[in-house]
Design goal:
Blueprint lengths: L2 H13 L4 H18 L5 H20 L7 E3 L12 E5 L2 E8 L13 H18 L8 E6 L10 E3 L4 E5 L3 H7 L7 H15 L7
Parallel strand pairs: 3-4, 4-6
Antiparallel strand pairs: 1-2, 2-3, 5-6
Amino acid sequence: MGTGVIVTALVLIALAGGGAVAVQRSRRAFKLAGSDRDPTPDPRAEAAARNAAVRLTSGALRELPVPMWRVVYEIGAGRLTGTEHVLVGPPGVFAVTTTIDPLPGEAAGDPDPVAVARAAMTRGGLDDALAAVQMSSTGLLAVHWGGAPAGSAPTCAGVHGVTHVDGRRLAAWATSLSEATLTPAQVDLAWQTVVRSIGRPDPLP
């Protein structure tokens, strides 16, 4: 049995629990196993870990208070240029992505032009949809399931309006946003606009 098959099987077993710890351990496992013969991790294992992390983000978003927040869940890859969920509430409209990387430290020095361009492109699809009602996204929320240093803040700022959030403390970040920039009518309009733009009701069953 090849290394790739073994790694994939181990990752799938590890992810059965669906927890953030499983995501972190599976990510480490396929990197270490891949280094024995092939330095490139099995993309199937990485995809399995990432899909599990996206589900964790979906679950964390479902814990946010309603009606303050409305969410468009698990958007297909070809719909909004990489945005996986859209979070809408009085503090604004946020494109949401998921990563299995650890929460980074505060950004320092000149921003990486590639990172700036990637963030702008990820928000681009959402901004295009909202333009139909003269609105735009507030920022890009990158939800991390790879852990964070003990005692660290639940978030840190990134480039071009990106906020990096520890997935386990997503609710703490949402609670910290006290300034309302959208009225309830605007929240509803933004949510409906995004739902129409991707051609399906929300949420997925």
